[in-house]
Every structure is written in C-alpha cells, then in structure tokens.
Specification:
Number of strands: 13
Number of helices: 14
Radius of gyration: 20 Å
Number of domains: 2
Distance between the termini: 51 Å
CATH topology of the largest domain: Aspartate Aminotransferase, domain 2
Helix content: 40-55%
Bound molecules: pyridoxal-5'-phosphate
CATH architecture of the largest domain: 3-Layer(aba) Sandwich
CATH superfamily of the largest domain: Type I PLP-dependent aspartate aminotransferase-like (Major domain)
CATH class of the largest domain: Alpha Beta
Order of helices and strands: HEHHEHEHEHEHEHHEEHHHEEHEEEH
Length: about 375
C-alpha cells in the first residue's frame, strides 16, 4: 500500500508498557507490578470522579453535549478566561494534532528542544514539516531566540515543565521567547505538568491568562497527569479567540466521550484531590533525590511528577530498564530520545519502596 510519503520518516510512538505485558511475559502477579512509566497519578482515580463516571453509565447511548458548556464554564472560572478562548480535546494530544494540521504544510518548520515530547515531531512530520531542535536537551532561551531568528519556524514548542527530562522554563524566559517570536510563529506552551511546577516554584507558573493578549500563543493543559484522568482522554487549549476559531475547523464532532466529559467536569471542581496528589508527590520525590545521591546517580532537577536518572557512562539505561521490567517494575527507558537515562514516575510510598529495593539490588 502506498501511503502519504511523509509517513516513511515517522517512527511510531512508543507508549509506556502496560501492566498486562509484564504479567504475560514475565509471570509477575498483576498486584505486584509497579507501573512508574507513564506519569499517571499514583493516587489512582479520584473516588468522587469514579462515582460520577458510574452515575453516567446509562447515558452511553447519548452523544455528549458537543458545546461542552459545563466543562468550559468550569475551566473559564478556574483560569479567568472567556469560554470562547477554550477548546477541548481528546487529551491535549488532540489539540497538538489540530494545531499542527491548522498551521503546517509541506516545507513548513517547527522548533523544539533537543529532547522533548515525542508527539510534536510526529504531528509535524505527518504534514511534511521539517523538525528543528535546539542543541541542549533542556530549554535555553538564547538557543531558542537564535534559532527562531535564523529559521523563522511556523511553530515553536515550549514544553514546560518538559517531558521526558523534567526541566522547566521560568515565566520570565517564556515571555522573552514569546517576545522574540515572529508574529506568524505560533508559540505552543505545553503545560501538561504545570500544576507540579507551580507548586515547586511560582516563578515557573505560566497561566493561560498570561498569554491571551498575544495573537500567536496557545497554552495546553491536560486532565491526564495531576488530575489523574489519563484513561479518560481530556485536555484543553486556551488562546485568544481567533486561534481557537481556527482550531475548531479541525475538530471532529463529539471529540470526547460522555463519560470523559462528566469525569473532567467533576475533576476540574475538586481542588482537594489535586492538592493531595501534589503533596504526596513533593514528599516522595525527595526520596528519589536522596536515593540518587546515595548511589552517585546524576539527576535533572524535576518540576514534574517524574524524575530522570542519567547514567552517563556508568551503566546502560536499556539494561537497567529491562532488568527492572523482569522484576515487575516498569520505568521509561530514554534511549529512544538519545539519552542514556531512565524516567521514573514518582509513585506512592509503597511503589517507591519497591522501586528502591529492586533497583538497589541491581546496583550492588
Ligand atoms: C502527557 C502529556 C501530554 C498530553 O497527554 P494527554 O493525555 O493527551 O492529554 C502532552 N504533553 C506532554 C508533554 C505530556 O507529557
């Protein structure tokens, strides 16, 4: 079959491995598998949200409210923006896809940091755009500004905090990059982990209302990480009205499900669960930092719900990830990103205990 030739250059996105695979391949009992690979909320589904999902089970025959009025109203209040400045997607991934198709075509170019979220490249290549990367794995303002001036990219992706490295860009630096962008360069601020950065250091908090005055900036958020709804697939884009209207031309009808919509509405109103999630994370990540220090492992200062262990030439990340997998601990090997490192989602106390116990067996 002959496909669009642009697809020849695309490597299929490799998602974190599921629990079922470890059970099937290595005979680990399902309850003993520790999944720390996909940055999911270790507290599990918010019980209040689970209740709402069940309560909507008999509404599965109905299409959802396509205006998504209630969810937009809740986000509009939360972020102090107008409902016309919001678009909802099946994960913020779907918004990334919309904006790539809305903005790019063959010969266009996109700019991102050396090591960042893999989907930016995939969506860009689907439409024949060229991918440019800054030299450093973390976001550096001088590198972005220099490359924007040299190449005038159509889209600039600022993943802050950044997946899979955990670094973040301060608000001051983000504003500097925005100010240096051409008026027709769309600057995408992917805030999938913004709740964690905001809690760690307010200088790293970018709020949607900070960017609404610009005609060329969009903020993306998701319910998949701090809100614990990865399985429901709900994300959002916030930008000035003209950008949102453009993206609406890309949107299929009913793009999130009735159950997802109900779940996100409930989750968006529950600050207590969010605070509990952040508090657990802040307490537990200290243990990962201490562990790394004890074993001489280099880390990147993390503003996210995961931590990256860099191995340099001390050990092989692929071997480490594989050995852990056989013991039932799933972490993310970053070899495919060009880093000899693993990314570990910070789990519950018990999950982290198990990680430390099994990993230290490997190290000694
Ligand atoms: C998880 C993630 C997303 C989006 O996830 P969805 O589940 O599609 O909302 C976007 N960007 C980054 C950097 C992520 O890590």
């Amino acid at each position: 079959m002959k496909f669009n030739p642009f697809l020849e250059d695309i490597k299929v996105y490799e998602a974190g491995k599921p629990i079922e695979l470890v059970v099937r391949e290595f005979g680990v009992k399902p309850e003993e598998v520790v999944k720390l690979a996909s940055n999911e909320n270790p507290l599990g589904t918010n019980p209040a949200v689970a209740k709402v999902i069940c309560a909507h089970a008999d509404k599965a025959h109905l299409y959802p409210d396509d205006s998504m009025y209630e969810l937009k109203a809740s986000l509009s209040e939360k972020y102090a923006v107008d409902e016309t400045e919001i678009i909802i997607g099946a994960g913020s991934d779907q918004i990334l896809e919309f904006l790539s198709r809305a903005k790019l075509r063959e010969g266009a170019s996109v700019l991102m940091s050396q090591v960042t979220f893999a989907m930016y490249e995939i969506y860009a290549k689907q439409v024949g755009a060229k991918v440019l990367r800054t030299p450093s794995y973390e976001h550096r303002v001088d590198e972005f500004v220099e490359m924007m001036e040299a190449h005038h990219p159509d889209i600039v992706y600022l993943c802050t905090p950044n997946n899979p490295t955990g670094d973040a860009i301060s608000k001051k630096d983000v504003m500097e990059i925005i100010d240096a962008a051409d008026p027709d360069t769309l600057v995408v601020i992917d805030g999938a982990y913004m709740e964690y950065a905001a809690a760690k250091d307010p200088q790293y908090l970018i709020e949607p209302k900070d960017i609404l005055q610009y005609d060329n900036v969009i903020y993306l958020g998701t319910f998949s990480k701090a809100y614990g709804l990865g399985g429901m697939r709900v994300g959002y884009g916030i930008a000035n009205k003209e950008i949102i209207q453009g993206l609406y031309k890309m949107r299929p009808p009913f793009n999130i499900s009735t159950l997802s919509l109900a779940a996100a509405i409930e989750a968006s109103r529950d600050e207590v669960f969010l605070e509990k999630s952040i508090a657990l994370h802040q307490e537990q990540i200290l243990r990962y930092e201490a562990f790394a220090q004890e074993y001489g492992i280099e880390t990147i200062d993390s503003y996210t719900n995961f931590i990256t262990y860099l191995f340099g030439d001390t050990r092989d990340a692929s071997k480490v990830a594989d050995a852990l997998l056989r013991k039932g601990v799933i972490v993310r090997n970053l070899a495919s990103y060009g880093l000899n490192a693993i990314r570990i989602t910070v789990g519950t106390q018990a999950q982290n205990d198990r990680f430390f116990a099994l990993f230290s067996e490997e190290l000694t």
